[in-house]
Amino acid sequence: MRQWNNLAETDGISVGQQLTVGEGKSTSADTGTVSPKPTQPITTPSAAAKPPVQPTTDGAAQQHTVQAGETLFSIAKRYGATVADLRRWNNLTETDGVKIGQVLVVTQPTAKPASADSTRPSPASPVGTVIEYTAQPGDTLYKIARAHGVTVAQLLEWNGKSSPAVSVGEKVKIRK
């Protein structure tokens, strides 16, 4: 079915999206109803037709509002990121998809350049930033580690755990 619909392994589907489910038939993702395949191809704006991505100049992370037909994979490709990057920057799990209108961080924020007229020394930056993730239903330490680009061993160490078990609502410290 993925081939019939030109979907990659990482592509999701959205409500209202037309899918080919067999020879000459398509189905609506929101109702599951099957209708004859249209004779004219359905065209949607392609990533190539979108304006080029302009980097921010102030070091802030760039954001993107999800449009109809977009997936994490297509958005990552457009911004030169990976799906894992988008998941990490937006605290998304492996099972999270995107919704029309959802705003995503699509570039990693960078440090602002120091102004030339600055005379005060900047304070020492911390060795790493610690974020706190709240475990959701279905989360495992492995899943959390993958989503944040760290290892299970690191999560065990940072959280003083001897077991990889994680409970819903548990706060998991993640160092960046």
In words, what does this structure look like?
With 176 residues, the chain is an alpha+beta fold. It folds into three domains: 1-37, no CATH class; 59-105, LysM domain (Membrane-bound Lytic Murein Transglycosylase D, Chain A), CATH 3.10.350; 130-175, LysM domain (Membrane-bound Lytic Murein Transglycosylase D, Chain A, Roll), CATH 3.10.350.10. 17% of the residues lie in helices and 16% in strands. The chain is built from four helices and seven strands; from the N terminus they run E-E-E-E-H-H-E-E-H-H-E. The protein has helices spanning 72-79, 83-89, 141-148, 152-158; strands at residues 18-22, 25-28, 34-36, 63-65, 103-105, 130-134, 171-175. Strands 1-2-3 form a three-stranded antiparallel sheet, with no helix packed on it. Strands 4-5 form a two-stranded antiparallel sheet. A two-stranded antiparallel sheet has the order 6-7. Strand 2 (25-28) and strand 3 form a beta hairpin. Helix 1 (72-79) crosses helix 2. The longest helix has 8 residues, at 72-79.
Record keyword descriptors for this entry.
176 residues; alpha+beta; Membrane-bound Lytic Murein Transglycosylase D, Chain A; three-stranded antiparallel β-sheet; two-stranded antiparallel sheet; 7 strands; 16% strand; globular
